[in-house]
Each structure stands twice: as structure tokens, then as C-alpha cells.
Amino acid sequence: MSGKRSIKVLSLVAVMSLSLAIPVLASDSEITVNNRPPVEEFKGGKQFIDGVQLLTEKDLKDNIRKNLKPVTVPSSGEIGTMGINSWTKVAEANYYTSYDWDRYSNIAASSVERTLSTKSEFTITVSGETNFGFKDVVGFKLAGSIGQKFEKSLTEKYKIPAGWVYEQKSAIRVLQEDYRYTNKGLLWDTQYNASSFDYRGFETWLWSNPI
């Protein structure tokens, strides 16, 4: 496995070659196969893949820190009935995580057989205040139990023509949902925050192009 830089150019010939070489894994509903390179960019110090932010360990730690302490706010009527003494979802966001890459450049004079392999993993996580029945509220919506680890991999053998590069990348899709519990007071309300990070599938990008 070599350095983490992607080749953004994909010729029509490469697309046609790839369509013959890459198996479509349609039997697994959790897998999304893209026969093209991902669009990668950085914005504000964050990496994005096909317009979706890559979730890092730092992002998870920042979320835990944000949800760590309850917030006291003046009592008001702006929070709906469902936000009083119950958990209410206030936001959600989609992410990729555990981004992996493998490639092989055939600089030989003839075709070669090579195996490419990528692996991505993710553990269902909750952060913040877990009292007031939060785990019961989100538990039935999750893809598995809290703390369950998903490990997904793709290993494929290719016959790579002379002068071609074959590449594959993989990542896991994650759904973050943010919740708030408002404990109503006479003059002050206490807001408790919690988040869930749930497994939402395995995605791959497979492509080839001339060197």
C-alpha cells in the first residue's frame, strides 16, 4: 500500500476496462460500489469525500467534550412540549469514516495479476448524558447494539494490463444524531445533550487508468 494521494483523471477507456474487471457486489444491501475515483477536497481543515465530511477520532472527542456538561439557560417558552423532560432530536449529519486505500501500478511490459485489499471499521457510539432513558430512545433506531463493532473489507484480484494503475478505496458511512433533554425549572432550565453515531453501510470506490 503506497502513499495517500489519489489520481483524479479517469479516461473513457479506463471506465470501460473497469466495468469488465470490477464485480458489482449487489447481493449485500449495505455495500455501495462506485466505479470511479472519489472526489476529495479539504475545507476549513476538514477532508470531504464526494461532498461528505470524513469523521476523525478528534471529531468524536470534540463531540464528547461538547456534550460533557449540561447547560443552564433562562426558562422560556421557545422549546416545544416534546423538548420538556424528554429527549428530542435537534440535528443530524452524515459522515464517512475509516477511509482506506490500496493501489497497484503495473510498470511491467505485460499484464500481471495482483490483489487489492481495503478494510474499514466502526463502533456504534453514544456520547453525552445517557441518563433519562437516552439509550432506550435511540437503541431501537441503531443498526446494532451500542458498542458493537462493524468490520468491512473488500479484497479483489485483478489482471492489470501493462502501463495501467488499478485502485480501490473504502469507507464506512456514519449517521450522527444530536438530542437534547430539557429539565424545566421555575426560572432556569437545564439542557442535557447527547449524540449517537450509527453504522449506515460500507462504500467502495474502484477505478483504473493509464499510468
Which structural class is indicated by helix and strand composition? mainly beta
Shape: elongated
Span of the ends, CA to CA:
17 Å
**Could you tell me the mean pLDDT?**
84
Specify the oligomeric state: single chain
- Helical content stands at 10-25%
Beta strands, count = 11
Largest sheet: 6 strands, mixed
Radius of gyration over alpha carbons? 22 Å
Q: Which consecutive residue ranges, at least 5 long each, have pLDDT under 50? A: 1-27
Strand content: over 45%
Tell me the number of helical segments per DSSP (H or I, 4 or more residues long).
Answer: 3
Provide the succession of SSEs. HEEEEHEEEEHEEE
Question: How does this model look, in words?
Answer:
The chain has helices at residues 12-21, 57-67, 134-139; strands spanning 31-34, 40-43, 46-49, 52-53, 71-74, 87-105, 112-123, 125-128, 149-160, 164-183, 188-210. A hairpin with a 2-residue loop joins strand 3 and strand 4 (52-53). The model is unreliable at 1-27 (pLDDT under 50). With 211 residues, it is mostly beta strands. The radius of gyration is 22 Å and the shape is elongated. It is built from three helices and eleven strands; from the N terminus they run αββββαββββαβββ.
